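Our preliminary data section would be incomplete without showing what the modeling component actually yields. Below, a chain of 220 amino acids is followed by its predicted structure, encoded as tokens that our downstream tools consume directly.
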Amino acid sequence: MSAAILAPDLFVRRHTVVAAPPLAPEIRLHLATELAPLWQASEEALAQGAVPPPFWAFAWPGGQALARHLLDHPDLVAGRDVLDFGAGSGLVAIAAAKAGAARVSAADTDPFAAAAIAANAALNDVALRVTTADPLAGAAPAGMVVTAGDVCYEQPMAERAIRWLRRCAERGSLVLLADPGRAYLPRAGLVERARYPVPTSREIEDRDRRETIVWQVLAD
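Predicted structure:
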């Protein structure tokens, strides 16, 4: 069967292996072992249009740090509703569920990411609500825990995301953003909660380890 006719859930399973991210070995994910073959397969799968980069297939430093922080500090989410923005593989959402969150929503506009999140949730025996609706287009949630891992890699995306995250904080949500020093991370309105040296792959980063900070985003 060619990649061009694989449904997203079958595509995810065919082009990944089950592995544990280094900083959160309690969690298993469908992850890519190599970037180039997956990228080529993604392009073939949706040959008639632009294909979102397969961010869902890697455990990025921000996601790993945030997952570790929630697992080590379950009091942050226990009994609360959690929204993980730009969820990718679902790593952070799964960590929130394992840490005792009441309800967890994982939001990612990429349908392949949604398929990966669903597969990874089943792999870890947790219940998540998966949505491809764009949270940035709607009202900021109030009184929740909002998480975002590694979303400041492009300027337009970073600016939109930070504005929305600040609105979430204004409405009484605890907003946690983990970042390994991306160029478009804002320089103000953040409070450091923790930092982690995260092992990384040369396939997706320019070094073998990135110091990653979990920040609390403050309201304007």
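The longest strand covers residues 190-199. The chain has a mean pLDDT of 89. Preliminary results of this kind motivate Aim 1 of the renewal.
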